[in-house]
Write a structure and sequence with these properties.
By secondary structure, this protein is an alpha+beta fold. The protein has two domains: about 1-40, no CATH class; about 40-200, tt1808, chain A (Alpha-Beta Complex), CATH 3.90.1570. The chain is about 25% helix and about 30% strand. The chain has four helices and twelve strands; from the N terminus they run ααββαβββββαβββββ. It starts with 14 loop residues before the first helix and ends in an 11-residue tail after the last strand.
């Protein structure tokens, strides 16, 4: 077990040392340029909406796999380490992520990710809009979504994409709950749709 402890941010560590941390401790940490930082508290509505988004991505992925005759394979995850680059070690935990299927025990990396989603919190606005956006683009993740929430659920969804695989991201569109229409109506990387009601903190049955 690594000697890196609960306050490992004072000196850089390797990716291997980060992975060697206790899994319960690592769940609430991210590593950026070799330095380890706490992710911060996530409110109930933040976590609920992230799970709803992951479910929407999964439903769309299942349809895509069926349409392709299983020639394509996708998975979804929430709050899982995505390795952006190993030297110096940088890995983030998107609130929801759509990625290509991986063999068991293979590390999820930026090259596998199709869509990374961050749910905005008051404390995370600058990090998600500036730092993560730049990092995800530099790592080549093709689609990045930002979702604002309130106590009822998702309020807005901003979609960004790389064009020609080249950073920075370009804004695709923004939907807002008060403007009507679906919360998500995407055609790229494949059709993905979600209604606002499906992104509520407590959606109706």
């Amino acid at each position: 077990m690594s000697t890196v402890g609960a306050e490992p941010r004072h000196h850089p560590v390797s990716w291997e040392e980060f992975l060697d941390l206790d899994s319960d401790l690592r769940r609430d940490l991210e590593i950026v340029e070799g330095y380890v930082f706490p992710r911060g508290r996530r409110a109930r509505e933040h976590q609920k909406v992230a799970r709803r988004l992951s479910a929407a991505l999964e439903a769309a992925a299942v349809e895509r796999m069926r349409d392709s005759g299983r020639a394509e394979c996708y998975e979804t995850n929430t709050e899982v380490d995505v390795l952006l680059w190993e030297h110096p070690a940088t890995a983030r935990k998107p609130d929801a992520v759509l990625h290509r299927c991986l063999p068991d025990f293979e590390q999820l990396a930026a090259e596998h990710v199709v869509v990374a989603v961050e749910v905005l919190s008051t404390w995370s606005q600058r990090r998600d809009r500036l730092h993560k956006m730049a990092e995800y683009a530099a790592a080549g993740i093709p689609h990045y979504w930002l979702v604002e929430v309130d106590t009822l659920g998702a309020v807005s969804v901003e979609r960004y994409a790389l064009f020609g695989g080249i950073a920075p991201y370009r804004h695709i569109d923004t939907t807002h709950r008060d403007m009507g229409g679906p919360a998500i109506h995407a055609t790229d990387p494949f059709p993905i749709e979600a209604l606002w009601r499906s992104l509520e903190v407590a959606p109706p049955e």
